[in-house]
From TrEMBL:
<keyword id="KW-0949">S-adenosyl-L-methionine</keyword>
<feature type="domain" description="Radical SAM core">
    <location>
        <begin position="6"/>
        <end position="237"/>
    </location>
</feature>
<dbReference type="Pfam" id="PF04055">
    <property type="entry name" value="Radical_SAM"/>
</dbReference>
<dbReference type="InterPro" id="IPR007197">
    <property type="entry name" value="rSAM"/>
</dbReference>
<protein>
    <submittedName>
        <fullName>Radical SAM protein</fullName>
    </submittedName>
</protein>
<dbReference type="InterPro" id="IPR050377">
    <property type="entry name" value="Radical_SAM_PqqE_MftC-like"/>
</dbReference>
<keyword id="KW-0411">Iron-sulfur</keyword>
<keyword id="KW-0479">Metal-binding</keyword>
<dbReference type="InterPro" id="IPR058240">
    <property type="entry name" value="rSAM_sf"/>
</dbReference>
<keyword id="KW-0408">Iron</keyword>
<dbReference type="InterPro" id="IPR013785">
    <property type="entry name" value="Aldolase_TIM"/>
</dbReference>
Length: 291
């Protein structure tokens, strides 16, 4: 049964599927084999978050562009509310492999697109974005396309820093020669020991000290190109997010670990969701300013 009285935080993350066409060893999304959310259920989720007054939704997975219904979902999610107020801002977090022609149906409904590049060094990048090659070239092509033909959509470039890409991560912006194609925000993520990231932590985890050294170099690189840098640290994860998983379970982060609190449509309206409003807003607005 749906629960229109449910109070949700201002910003939520919708993880519609675990399936992906890459196998990144640091992946902290749902396991690839979990069943994807059906279109019918996804549309119920859309109605629920709109009724709850959610202001922004990050759509991720898995790889959301693998879902045939994604264009219909982003249109329904982002359309104006019955009151005439604007609908939630939609951010699509994608690995960038979808063909341009399918992105054309999605981009008009987005406020932001989030794209990943892990390293200026091709070998480092390939070790972390395992699967279809050449992934990095495809991302750069999509980035140029968005900048050229979809100027209304803002771009966040994300770089996950692990032990394998400390050398090449700070050089990521060097891959973009044309100033007009630079992202609005470049976000550096400390690798999270969650899901596949936990499986591969011996190989990939990076200490706080080593991460801060990379951050320092990224700050200089971003300042040189006039790009706004944002930094995700594992220490700041708790209380900032509310995820809705492919099976409609609501997931929050407490003590640095994900905790499933119940099905979105069956949650008690009085449940304490362990999401700190200021952290939730600060995280989204800090990453996607002016959204
Ligand atoms: S990190 Fe993203 S692109 Fe990589 S396997 Fe996970 S969902 Fe796919």
């Amino acid at each position: 049964m749906s629960n229109p009285q449910l109070r949700l935080p201002d910003y939520v993350d919708l993880r519609l599927l675990g399936r992906c066409n890459l196998e990144c060893p640091f992946c902290f999304g749902p396991r690839h084999e979990v069943p994807s959310m059906s279109e019918r259920t996804a549309m119920r989720v859309v109605a629920t978050v709109r009724e709850a007054g959610v202001r922004g939704v990050v759509i991720s997975g898995g790889e959301p562009t693998l879902l045939p219904y994604l264009p219909r979902l982003v249109e329904a999610l982002s359309r104006p509310l019955p009151s005439g107020e604007p609908g939630p801002k939609v951010v699509l977090s994608t690995n960038g492999l979808a063909p341009l022609r399918s992105m054309e149906r999605i981009l008009p409904h987005l406020a932001w697109i989030a794209l990943p590049i892990e390293s200026a060094d091709d070998e480092e990048h390939r070790a972390l974005r395992i699967g279809k090659a050449p992934h990095r070239d495809r991302v750069l092509r999509l980035l140029h396309e968005v900048r050229k033909n979809h100027a209304r959509v803002r771009v966040k470039l994300g770089t996950v820093v692990t032990r394998r890409n400390v050398d090449g991560a700070p050089g990521v912006l060097d891959l973009i020669e044309d100033e007009r194609s630079l992202p609005d925000v470049w976000k550096i993520y400390q690798m999270s020991e969650t899901n596949y990231g936990e499986d591969n932590k011996e190989l990939l985890s990076i200490s706080d000290t080593a991460f801060e050294q990379v951050v320092e170099r990224c700050e200089k690189a971003a300042a040189n190109r006039g790009v706004r840098l944002r930094v995700y640290r594992n220490a700041g994860r708790s209380g900032s997010y509310l995820f809705i998983d492919p099976d409609c379970q609501v997931v929050v982060v407490q003590g640095g670990r994900e905790r499933r609190v119940g099905n979105l449509f069956e949650l008690d309206t009085d449940i304490e969701l362990a999401v700190d409003s200021a952290r939730n807003v600060g995280n989204f607005v800090g990453t996607y300013p002016d959204a």
